[in-house]
Design brief:
The structure is a single chain. This protein is an alpha/beta fold and about 375 residues long. The chain has two domains: about 110 residues, Transcription Regulator spoIIAA (2-Layer Sandwich); about 200 residues, Rossmann fold (3-Layer(aba) Sandwich). Helices cover about 25% and strands about 25% of the residues. The protein is built from eight helices and 15 strands. The strands form four sheets. Strands 9-8-7-10-13-15-14 form a seven-stranded mixed sheet, with helices on both faces. A hairpin with a 7-residue loop joins strand 1 and strand 2. Helix 3 packs parallel to helix 4. The N and C termini lie far apart (about 50 Å). Bound molecules: S-adenosylmethionine.
Length: about 375
């Protein structure tokens, strides 16, 4: 049988479907309780663990020679990948892209490039020991000539009970600008597991932009408003940006200001998305274009049972459609790695999965997110 690996040695059939947790959106608002649940296993462990000497009893140190071997394999892979992608993306003024996506099965790391900074994440294995992630990161940094103060570590734990979930990593407040084609976004690589920008959605943003002209656009679970910027740049008549975190609503406004797009046609709403939808429906409000990208799990104030995307997406989409204009468009996305769509019975004109078009070429996990284009009935 021929080896399916491509010129970089990546397996093009790799979908990332192993025991890894959801890859991203390990988010919480500043007012929000931690969102977690079965299968949503990303956790931020204190940075000190990376160099700490202690180890769980009975866990053997990952052998130094094997650590060095993994680090060398990763560095070699990332060097080749960077040479290719940095040229490719520089032509389009794209500063943020994925350099490594667990391509070598035994090196369970993800490496992202953010305008000369590296975010190196390890899917922690107990046998790896405390110095493993640092060794990987050092090797990648040396291979690409990135100084140590531009290397940002993330440990993502698989399974339950391995550490505080979604806890802030730091409180530097340090944000800097990155480019995505002719848009700019503020990112913070130190304080949270997520950075303020999800580069895996850059082509989804381009798609929203391409259809936004003269529309009223609604961005639900908007995070830092990158999609609002895309719609505004595409000529949306108005936008509404909804997130329950005031930190992210403010950040979304900062992103609009940064791009010279801020104006009275843009509204920032700090609210629970479902409460917002219920109110908007009662007020008879409608939007032509809606982007809805909920977290996999989310708690709601005053409600015992939190949001679970697998269970609750049909109900959420019904509420979204109730505020979508006849003939309007909904883009629905999730990064839940075990998402099972249940769209039967939704009163829509059509539903088409467009994931293959929205996941960019730098993501080896071809389902880092999944995305559907829903056209409402006319
Ligand atoms: C998956 S991220 C959205 C990513 C965003 N669409 C993007 O691509 O940049 C989840 C966001 O949902 C927000 N969120 C979580 N639960 C919420 C809720 N019940 N209502 C409104 N926002 C919520 C979080 O604060 C976070 O900003």
């Amino acid at each position: 049988m021929s080896d399916p690996r491509d010129e970089y040695g990546f397996d093009p059939n790799y979908t990332g479907e192993d025991d890894a947790p959801d890859d991203r959106r390990a988010l919480e608002g500043d007012e929000a309780p931690a969102a977690s649940g079965p299968g949503d296993g990303a956790a931020a462990l204190p940075a000190a663990d990376d160099r700490g000497a202690s180890r769980a009893p009975g866990v053997k140190a990952f052998d130094a020679a094997r650590t060095a071997e993994h680090a060398a394999m990763l560095a070699n892979r990332v060097r080749k990948r960077h040479a290719h992608l940095s040229r490719r993306f520089a032509r389009e003024s794209i500063d943020c892209f994925r350099l490594y996506d667990r391509d070598i099965p035994e090196v369970r790391a993800v490496v992202d490039w953010y305008a000369g900074h590296l975010v190196v994440a390890e899917y922690v294995r107990r046998q790896h020991g405390p110095g493993y992630l640092q060794a990987l990161a050092d090797a990648v940094a040396i291979a690409l000539g990135v100084p140590a103060d531009r290397v940002h570590l993330r440990r993502r734990a698989t399974g339950q009970g391995e550490g505080p979930r979604y806890a802030p990593l730091a409180d530097t407040g340090h944000r800097f600008e990155v480019r995505e084609r002719d848009l700019k976004f503020l990112v913070n690589l130190d304080d949270r597991l997520d950075t303020g920008l999800f580069p895996d959605h850059r082509d989804t943003r381009a798609r929203v932009r391409s259809v936004a002209s003269a529309t009223d656009f609604l961005n639900l679970y908007a995070y830092t408003g990158a999609f609002t910027c895309a719609a505004a740049a595409g000529g949306a008549r108005s936008t509404v940006t909804v997130d329950r975190s005031s930190t992210y609503v403010d950040w979304a406004k900062d992103n609009l200001v940064l791009n010279g797009l801020w104006g009275p046609q843009h509204r920032m709403v700090r609210a629970d998305a479902e409460d917002f939808l219920d109110r908007a429906r009662l007020e008879g409000r409608q939007w032509d274009l809606v982007f809805v990208d909920p977290p996999s799990f989310s708690n709601r104030k005053g409600v015992d049972v939190g949001f679970d995307i697998n269970r609750d997406h049909p109900d959420l989409l019904r509420r979204v459609l109730a505020v979508t204009a006849p003939g309007g468009t909904v883009l629905f996305s999730t990064n839940h790695q075990r998402f099972t769509p249940r769209f039967e019975g939704l009163a829509v004109g059509s539903i088409e999965e467009i994931t293959a078009q929205t996941v960019p070429e730098d993501y080896r996990n071809r389902q880092v997110h999944r995305c559907w284009l829903i056209l409402h009935r006319k």
